[in-house]
Amino acid sequence: MAAPLLRIDNLTVRFPNTEPVSRLSFEVGEGETLAIVGESGSGKSLTALALMQLLPRSAKIPNGRIEFAGKDLLGLDQKAMRNLRGREIAMIFQEPMTSLNPVLTIGRQITEVLTLHEGIRGKAARSRAIELLNLVRIPDPQRRIDDYPHQLSGGMRQRVMIAIAVACRPRLLIADEPTTALDVTIQAQVLDLLDTLRRELSMAVVLITHDLGVVAQWADKVVVMYAGRKVEQALPDALFRTPLHPYTRGLLAASPRLKTNLHYRDARLTEIPGSIVSAAGEKGCPFRPRCTVARDSCAHFVPALVEVSEDRLVACPYSFIPEVAHGAALGL
Amino acid sequence: MSTLTRVGRTFRRTAIQAVPTVFGIVILNFFLLQLAPGDAADVMAGEAGSATVETMAALRQRFGLDNPLLVQLFNYLYNLAHFSLGFSPRYGMPVADLIGQRLPGTLLLMAVALAVAIVLGLALGSLMTVFAGRLPDRMLSVISLLFYSIPGFWIGLMLIVLFSVKLGWLPSGGSGTIGSNLTGLAGLWDKARYMILPALSLALFYVAIYARLTRAAMLEVQSQDYVRTAAAKGLPPAIITIRHVLRNALIPITTMAGMHVGGMLGGAVVVETVYSWPGLGRLAFEAVMGRDFTVLLGILLLSSLLVIVANATVDLLHAWLDPRVGVR
């Protein structure tokens, strides 16, 4: 297999008191969509910000490696990194309502990135911006280009964000919960758009989400995160068919079943008891307090990631014991 | 909607709102001033040392001070409707001429002070933001606190002591070298030298306010999502600060600056007195002491117009700076 476009190796993000991302590794190939799943606080967004090197000032990366197209991003200076941002790695954010500058027209905000990275100005930049608005399926782009963000709906604003992100044909697009703030009907449109653009522009996508439905439909590969660690990695089909880690099972049990309407008839949605807590200072498996199959030994060591089969990693030694798997299938 | 229609619409709305405001201010001021004890005739008589009841009555009759209050008000409004501000008994000349003599000096002083305050305030505030929480920020915070809390007249006197008396660099009062007849660049420089100290005394208080405000507004804007978006585009920090942060932070600062135009007139009274600057502030002070209410009413009317114009300017600036304003 060719070298992956992005390789994250043992990445740790540390704040003075906590370590929200801990020894995280994954790879994204050219043109591939990787989904990172986990509940709020699992370190997904910080991972994305670490990729862009836009972490808050108090955050440190004590160890780990981020390799993008053969370059070590952590070793780059500020200027070289700025050169990559928006040109080769682009990012869209969760809140389209606040992610655009309210006092500049959307046209200005799109041409800004064109001027910066490709030196396109004036009329040429404007017509490129109109093309981009067209590309993200904004109707009547000639008129819309002079609109201010407040004149657009949330879905339209997220399209503008996508237009800004893909303006310089990046090789990697990081989408941090791009549809969380949108209506369900708009969500599918935006994700479809992202997927179409991914194919048209042959870019890789890191899709951060807590919506498993999104994962099933759009991801090539899934990483499940809990408390800053990768607890499971799989292809989406395998993940939905046989979730291994107790946390993944909990997540699946807590979301409405896809493609069936069984949950309307016989199954209650279950919840994962407790809440995500900081892993700092805790010994043992971070999921132990909430785990239905936890054993005494879980308190003593952090379970290592084990390769179960090809493309399949899981960080729970009890996840493949038949009785446990069986119990979990019953919703215990 | 284009910027121009937005600004135009705001202008129309502001102009319509201004009319009843001015009318209310005139009537309110008129009655407020009547509450002060004594009138111009009393003061003139007092200054003359002696006056008979007849002279006083004659004085009052001449200036219409013996009429009932409502008649006086009607006369004043009648004059106003004919674009006349009335006649000053004390200075013996039309109020409009009197104000016309003094207004340019005050406007110049205020404009320079406001410009200095905004420029210095924005610069200091930006500096504090860049170093937020670190030593330069702390030091500037203390300095701006000092500027904020020291009264204007004291700063004025101390600046005179330092720059005029001890160092002898700048003149201590007045608005130009008398009888120098300088023209062109030399004349401008001469005027500027007289301007520096009064403008600085008036500005320092506002410098402190704008610096603190800029710091707070910029820190607030810096944590907004769209600033992160700008960083994700790969923009260098200087452009992010100027194009994305400062532009948004300017909105609260223009609001404040507009409100301060009125406050500056008040401050000008003190500063003009300290530096014997021939402006409206000192005229107002003298008018109060002389119970010269026609002059005072004229000044108050003019100040309120000035404040209204300042507010309208701020509204227009907002409409230009913030596209969301026109929506209301």
What does this structure look like?
The complex is a heterodimer of chains A (332) and B (328). Chain A has a domain of 90 residues. Chain A contains twelve helices and twelve strands. An eight-stranded mixed beta sheet of chain A has the order 6-7-8-3-9-10-12-11, with helices on both faces. A four-stranded antiparallel beta sheet of chain A has the order 2-1-4-5, covered by helices on one side. In chain A, α3 crosses α4. Chain A is globular. Chain B has 328 residues and is an all-alpha fold. Chain B has a single domain, classed as Orthogonal Bundle (MetI-like fold), CATH 1.10.3720.10. A two-stranded antiparallel ribbon of chain B has the order 1-2. In chain B, β1 and β2 form a beta hairpin. In chain B, α5 runs antiparallel to α10 and α10 packs antiparallel against α12. Chain B is globular. The model of chain B has no long low-confidence stretch (mean pLDDT 82). Classes of the chains: A alpha/beta (332), B mainly alpha (328). Chains A and B meet through α2 and α3 of A and α9 and α10 of B.
Notable traits:
heterodimer; A: four-stranded antiparallel β-sheet; 12 helices; 12 strands; globular; B: mainly alpha; MetI-like fold; two-stranded antiparallel sheet
Secondary structure: elements and pairs:
The complex is a heterodimer of chains A (332) and B (328).
Chain A: E1 6-13, E2 21-28, E3 33-37, H1 44-52, E4 65-68, E5 71-72, H2 78-84, E6 89-92, H3 106-118, H4 122-135, H5 141-144, H6 154-166, E7 172-176, H7 184-201, E8 204-209, H8 212-218, E9 221-226, E10 229-234, H9 236-241, H10 246-253, H11 262-265, E11 306-309, E12 312-314, H12 322-329
Parallel strand pairs in A: 3-8, 3-9, 6-7, 7-8
Antiparallel strand pairs in A: 1-2, 1-4, 4-5, 9-10, 10-12, 11-12
Helix pairs in contact in A: 3-4, 4-6, 6-7
Chain B: H1 3-34, H2 40-48, H3 53-63, H4 69-81, E1 87-88, E2 93-94, H5 95-130, H6 135-149, H7 152-166, H8 184-222, H9 225-232, H10 237-274, H11 280-289, H12 293-321
Antiparallel strand pairs in B: 1-2
